[in-house]
Structures are given as C-alpha cells and as structure tokens.
Amino acid sequence: MPKLNLKKKNEDNAQEPNCAKKTYKFQVLELILNPIVNNIVSDNDLSIIKQTRANRQKNSSNSWKNLLIWGENKSIMGSLNHKFSNKINLIYIDPPYATGGNFESKTFIGENGTFENKKAYSDIWDGGINEYIDFLYDRLLLMQNLLSENGSIYVHLDWHVSHYIKVILDEIFGKENFRNEIIWAYPAASARTRRFFIRSFDSILFYTKSNEYTFNDDPGIYMEYSDRVKFALKEDGKGMFYYRGGSHNGKKLSQKVYVTNKGIFPRDVWTDIPYIRANTLEYQAFSTQKPERLLKRIILASSNKDDIVADFFCGTGTSLAVAEKLGRRWIGSDVAKQAINISRKRILDVWNSNDLIDWKKKYGRRSQPFKIVRTNEDTQAINACKDFLVENIQKKDIMSLIQDTKFVVNISKKDSKIMVDLVDYIIPNLNLIKDNIKNRIKNFSDWIDSWSIDFNHQEHSFTTAWISYRTLKNRKLELTSVPYNYEEKGKHKISIKVNDILGIETIQDYDVVIT
Ligand SMILES: C[S@@+](CC[C@H](N)C(=O)[O-])C[C@H]1O[C@@H](n2cnc3c(N)ncnc32)[C@H](O)[C@@H]1O
Question: Which atom of ligand 1 is nearest to the CA of 95?
Fold first, then answer.
C-alpha cells in the first residue's frame, strides 16, 4: 500500500505512538441545564428555574452532558482518550483544507446589526503541504483511537488535499475499511475563471473502524426523486405511484408501480443539498459553514439515537445542532473563541431552528444539558479579541484589557424575589480598540452579545439559569432579567457573566441575603 513518507510523521510516531500521552485538565466554564432564554417564560421554565439548585445537584453528578470544548483539538483528544477511547460512534470533521487563505466570519454589533468582518481561522501553512499533512495525521490517529468498534468517520475535504488524506486514511483505518468518497456537488457554484472548469464539489471520505459498522437505511437519508420522476408521480388512496411504460406488438402498455419511499437511496454523488444562503434560519455568517441537510444524512446513516457524535473542528456547530435535533449525544471542539460562542448560541437557540424531519416547522424544543469547558491555556483568551484591537498591541495590554473591563448591574429585591438590570459596560482602555468598532457603539449595550446569570452560584462552575443573547435574526437584548424566587432564606451568591462582541468574557459575583 502506498504511504506518504513524511519526515516529521515518522519521527513523531517513533516517540509517541498513539499521540495520546499528553493530557490536560478541562476547566468548566459553564453548565447549561435548561435556562430561561431571552425572557421567554413558559410554566415549564418557571418550575425549572425554581429547581435549579436541586437540578444542579442531580445534574452535576454523573449524568451525561453534551460537551463543547474550547481549545486545540490535539490536546483535547489526548485528554478525552482515557474516558472515551473506543466510545465515540461517529466522527465528522471539516478541518482546514490547506487552501492557503484566511476565512472570515461576521461579528454583528448592537441592535441594528451592522457587522464587521473578522478572521475566523487561518488556513495558511508556512511549512507547506507537509506541515498540513503532519497536522491532520496526528489528529486522525487520535480519532481512530476514540472511535468505537462499530464507528464511522467522515472527513470533509476538497481538491486541495483529499488525495493525500485518502492515502493517510487508508494507512490509519485500513484500505478495507474505506466505504465511500462522497461527492457533495453544490449546484449553484460559480467562479469568474474561464481558464478551467468551475470547481463545484467537496469530497467527503467515509471510513469505518471495522467491517461491523452502523449503517441505517433510514427514510431521512433518501434523495428526492429527480424533477422528471416527481412530475410523473401521482397519488391515490393506496399511496404514491407512477406508470412504468412499455409496449407489446406495437401497442403501448403501462403498469402502475407504487413507491414506498419518497425518494431514492443515495448514491455517492450528492447533488440535492445547496450551499448555505444568507436568508435561511441556519445561516451563521461564517464562510465555511456547512448545511444541516448534509449532516442530517451522515448522522442518520451512521449513528443511532443516544450514540455519541463528535466534531473536533466544529466551527459554527452544524454537526452538533443536527446531532442534538436527532437525539444523539455530542462532543464538539474548536480552537477559536468565536466559533465556540456561535456554537453555544446556536445550541441554546436550537428551538428556533428548522425541524429536520419537517423542514417547514421549527424544531421547538430546548437543548439537552451541555457543558462548556476549555483546556487551561491563557493564550486562548489573548487570541479571542485580537482582531478588534489596534495593530502591534502587546500581550500585556491585551491581558489588562481583559482584566480591567467591567460591567455595572442593579440588583433589586422584593420579598424573596431578585431581579437584575444591566446598566453599564465599561472598557477603560478604549484606546486599544480599533476606531471602526468604537465609532459604531452608540449605547453601552452595543458592546454586548450575551449576558447570563447563575442565581445560586457554587464554587466550581457557572450554571446558567437565565440568559439573554442576540442572534442574527433577533438583535434584541433584554437588559432586565426575570424575577428569581429564592425558596431558601439566608445568603446566596449571584454570579453574572457578560460576553462582548470583541470576545471578552467578564464575570462578577454578588451576595444577596433573603430574610
Ligand atoms: C471549516 S471550519 C468548520 C466549519 C463547520 N463544519 C461548520 O459547519 O461551521 C474549520 C474549523 O476548525 C477550527 N480549527 C482549526 N484548527 C483547529 C485545531 N487545531 N483545533 C480545534 N479547532 C481547529 C477552525 O477554528 C474552524 O472553526
């Protein structure tokens, strides 16, 4: 079997055969059980917020929580290894493709939602293709280890590198475990070039860990009939049918054929899934975001309810949102804070997204509990806001910006009820921020993307009981929380967290006494 003979790949393997030796402790940033969001309160929510303390005890124990992890995925996978080795049923990844470019996402500002482009991630490799292949090789080895015996992996790439990575996947997973190279052809692709044919597909390489793997003939994965067949389909009391033509002795015959599924079992060329458009509910203004329909087909085919689906390059959290809506458990990670913020809001707001079974409806259900954790690396915080700051800024200035930023709240008390108003947001060293951002801020709340409250804060993790956030479609931010009713007298700690448009997260704690 051909192998890519890369120098570093061989050295690394000699030293560290399973790439899983380094482990980092995860720091829990947030526990999201079932908060009230944007002050939309149903009876169900009220009972939930009352039970937060009881829930917390129950939930902080061993019950499963989906995981959103902020950090470098090599160390993340190394750390997950002891708990999840051979446990993950499906991995989908959509890593950088060595395109040699930077990708952007839009950061929206304030209520009217003007936006600023921001680098989402870089796909430039100083060490060229070798460096890229080394990067992915290490991570694919770790994924192979995490995958369960009946598990599958889908690696989403394009013409830049899919041929190299196929050789590596053959080596890691075994040529015999190759299942498909799926061609996702996006119908509306266009380009200005007239010097070669327009490139209009991505390759998704599908491998399994063994020959005993999950693959479901689920009606949800079927492709629609072509327009010609759809046009010919009719319905009667017994179902959908078409006439199959033929002739005998020069006489035209036709036979009524009933069809059981509303479509055809997919081939490996998928032409029925358009690229994301800005007017859709799922659009997250992130240039490499993938469509939910694509992930729906993959997740329905290669996993079952309650299986664990992981995406270690999760971006806007497409695979996580789809796994959530299809009743799978999920683990997602990304090194970019902005990607984590987008994924967090996307999962919180999943009830407002399209239902995957009946697309015209909204999903309408709140997400399952999830945890946001990070690997303990200070540099992450520094990178989070860099794009909005003046050129050549020093590390220590970024740290002081992060540490000195604060907000002001009014906490009002009536009997055993507490309400919080957010009244100001103060960035003392505004000189560090680029003018085109500063000039667009008309009100303190324009700085803010989301804020949340833990009414019963206990030492280790922030448990979101209430949150207000802006989405692309709904720019309104509530500045007053719903009243929270304490059932126990005495001193309670309230923790409040504000996430701003720059990527800075500020947490302040307050004591309240209920008499
Ligand atoms: C092509 S995008 C994924 C888009 C995603 N499929 C979606 O639908 O939104 C690739 C993502 O990988 C992340 N990434 C790149 N290198 C990473 C690393 N070493 N660890 C974790 N995430 C990484 C980038 O920040 C980026 O968000």
Answer: 10
